[in-house]
Amino acid sequence: MAGDQQKRFLTGVLENLPGLSFLILSRASDDLRLAGWIGTFLAATVCVAYARKVMKPRPVLLGINIFMIAITPLIELLHIGNNAAVAQYLLKNIDSLVLASIFVTGLALTLFTRRGFLTHRSESTAKMRAHSACLLTVCAVGVVWSLFAGDNHLLSLVLPMSLLFGMQQFLTAGATDRQARHDVVLASAGAVPAPADTTI
Q1: Dist. CA 18–CA 169, nearest whole Å
Q2: Which of 51, 120, 124, 155 might form a disulfide with 149, Cβ 3.0–4.6 angstroms?
Q3: How far apart are CA 56 and CA 75, in angstroms?
Q4: Distance of alpha carbon 75 from its chain centroid, rounded?
Q5: Membrane-crossing residues (predicted)?
Q6: Could you tell me the residue ranges of all domains in the chain?
Q7: Cα–Cα distance, 166 to 49 (Å, whole number)
């Protein structure tokens, strides 16, 4: 039977699969439509797993998967409605739209959940909002950056995403260290600390 860390690794792979499949298929062939629909199907499968509590969503990947579900049907509808120019504009700015979806998801988590965008136990609501604000700022800067970075996906998407994940890991590490010190105090007092969780 898989341990907790193995389960976290496998769920991480599954959550990443829609976006990765789209990137690989779109680069391997010129059929963006096929790549998009495969990504949409996989993202919908992941979201069903979220809804059935088979896995807990991670905020950045949740934003990506929501985007993957929406973008291909939207572009198809635009083509059907003779709005090909709008569809092409969306495709041209796909990297910015991915980052914008993550930003909106993070904002919703900040406003409507106890753990916010970082999804880590915080000492206070103010600390949670401060962490979320850092991630939202990186995300917003990434959206603006991607609009002017040109067609190089390494610059327009991979770089902002790397910075976002890096900031998330940095803030989580800091929060984990503070929680560990707090748990030591609780343990010395005879209390049992709750385990840390970085999912929603």
Answers
A1: 22
A2: 155
A3: 29
A4: 21
A5: 60-78, 98-118, 130-148, 154-171
A6: 1-92, 95-188
A7: 26
Read off φ and ψ for residue 93, nearest 5 degrees: -110, 30
Neighbours of 14 (CB within 10 A): 16
Quick one: DSSP state of residue 113? S
Candidate from 2-16, 44-58, 97-111 with smallest mean pLDDT = 2-16
Mean pLDDT over all residues of the chain? Answer: 87
Note the helical H segments in the chain: 4-28, 32-51, 59-80, 84-92, 94-112, 125-148, 153, 159-188
Which SS3 state, helix, strand or coil, does residue 118 take?
coil
Distance CA 70, CA 91 (A): 13
197: which DSSP letter? -
Tokens 């998967």 locate to 65
Taking the model in full, what pTM does it have?
A: 0.85
* Number of CB atoms found within 10 A of residue 101's CB: 23
> What distance in Å separates the CA atoms of residue 83 and residue 74, rounded to the nearest whole number?
11
Other C-beta atoms closer than 10 Å to the C-beta of 173 total 11
Q: How many residues does the chain have?
A: 200
pLDDT of 172:
87
